[in-house]
Amino acid sequence: MNVSENIKYIGVDDVELDLFESQYVVPNGISYNSYLIIDELVAIMDTVDSRLGSEWFAQLEKALCGRKPDYLVVHHLEPDHAGEILRLTEKYPELKIVASARAVQMLPQFFNADFSDRTIAVKEGDTLSLGEHTLTFYAAPMVHWPEVMVSYESREKVLFSADAFGKFGALSHQEDWACEARRYYFNICGKYGNQVQVLLKKVAGLDVNTICPLHGPILTENLDYYIGLYDCWSSYRAETDGVFIAYASIHGGTAQAAKKMAEILEQKGAGKVSVADLSRCDMAEAIEDAFRMSRLVVAASSYDAGVFPPMNDFLHHLQIKNFQNRKVGIIENGSWAPCAARVMKEMLQTMKSIEIAEPTVTIRSRMKEEDLPRLEELANEMLR
Ligand code: FEO
Fold first, then answer.
1. Does residue 317 have its Cβ closer than 6 Å to ligand 1?
2. Residue 144 CA, closest ligand 1 atom number
3. What is the CATH number of the domain that holds 194?
4. Cα 341 to Cα 300: distance, rounded to the nearest angstrom
């Protein structure tokens, strides 16, 4: 799989990784993408995670066909892309590293080596000519680290987009792009919607035929679809009209109330309604669903004078991922001193533009007939 005759794919699939970034399950693996541009001069576009360094070197050497690389362009210094920089520079002593000034500054944090005589710091709008191919660099700070940049190759109209437009899933695994791209986006870049918006405005000024991200497939067709989803996600607009109900239940009473709420909302034509058990589901998927849907209901048991920890964890994730701009309903359960709603409300109130729907519903141990009118009332308010 290549981008073109002169732009080769030299990335690797990691299908044995247990947790990406030590926290995200990747049941279908992940790819660490890397590219090679062959012209009068030769540029490597990022390395890979050292977990698969030997495999990557083999790919690189095959694609080089005896040539020597002149440049390594570092779009992002995170170790899943920069893992082989040291070995590469040892193997090719003439090779220059092209990176943002911030990346150049950060390089010694990751490698016990002095790269100062071989780094070229580039800034917004700088270009690098390889012959017929010319790269122009654009800063993309906080998409996903501060040193990130993207580059645009004008002859073939290729955008090397760093982590942007990436997804979980090895390239050997065929699957829909949006599902795992969305889970990847909200959990990895979700906090930085404003910075992604800035990048999208820069991309809008370019004539792009192909997007080459650092994870996931090379995107060649219908680019407006991918860019449109990124615009929706990064502006914190809901992608799907509906309600996501996240519950944290100890003995099933809260779960029963959450499921009843789902039933009531469905009957009222709430659009897509989905329910997640925070004690057992993939937290990253729950975060994704909260951002995806237009409304959220949180239902949790009281616990140790607070809220049951899986809900605390979920809301903490939403806080740090900059969750905002949604209507949220609250259901609590408490057998003797209900206090989950207070904690959930306090956490939600730290988030931007969150409207808490009233009433808050309190269940005592098990949902009863007399609780139904309050659930109905909350459902009506959620849909107003
Ligand atoms: Fe794929 Fe932020 O590294």
1. no
2. 2
3. 3.60.15.10
4. 8
